[in-house]
Write a structure and sequence with these properties.
Helix content: 40-55%
Structural class: mainly alpha
Shape: globular
Order of helices and strands: HHHHHHHHHH
Number of helices: 10
Radius of gyration: 20 Å
Number of strands: 0
Distance between the termini: 33 Å
């Protein structure tokens, strides 16, 4: 996308009423660009027992519900399903692609089973949609694609940090990464 910035600038120059909405990991750094950071999706606090109304208003729950309903018209966000959807969201660390891929499984898996199977996230989070880029067809591909974008020293750091499960301390990181 960054390589296309000059083309976008030309289009805007020759088409003065044209408006572009561009999503990117990095700013294009072109005249007239307005950068709007997209915050992570929010979900209710896992320790709280929020009401159905509060759960239904959470953007992550709404994203899951919209994709689940698109997969199977029988899916409905109810007082019974909303807590399960919130639990699924928490298991997916709020990653929108993971939420979309998990929601696609609702046509074949009951929510409690889906939540249980998400303990092993990556094998389940696969899309069958042929018009998605390869990096968006599975969470494994998305992670691999992002990893490949990193410089070699950052890749080496990630490999070293893979020994930690469920977090670590700054001292543990320093001891493991070393340099």
């Amino acid at each position: 996308l960054l390589a296309a910035a000059p083309l976008l600038t030309s289009l805007l120059t020759f088409c003065p009423r044209l408006k572009l909405l561009v999503t990117s990991r990095a700013p294009l750094r072109v005249v007239g660009e307005h950068i709007l950071p997209v915050p992570p999706l929010s979900a209710p606090d896992p320790g709280a027992r929020p009401s159905f109304e509060r759960l239904a208003q959470a953007p992550a729950v709404q994203l899951f519900a919209a994709h689940a309903h698109a997969t199977t018209e029988t899916f409905a966000l109810t007082e019974e399903t909303a807590p399960l959807v919130a639990d699924i969201f928490r298991r997916l660390d709020g990653v929108p692609l993971a939420i979309e891929l998990a929601a696609a499984r609702v046509a074949h898996l009951d929510l409690p089973i889906l939540a249980e199977w998400l303990e092993q996230r990556l094998p389940l989070l696969i899309s069958r949609e042929v018009d998605r880029p390869d990096r968006h067809r599975t969470m494994r591909n998305a992670i691999a694609w992002s990893y490949e974008l990193l410089p070699e020293d950052a890749q080496r750091t990630f490999r070293r940090l893979a020994v930690f499960v469920n977090g670590c301390t700054i001292e543990g990181i320093a001891a493991t990464v070393g340099d």
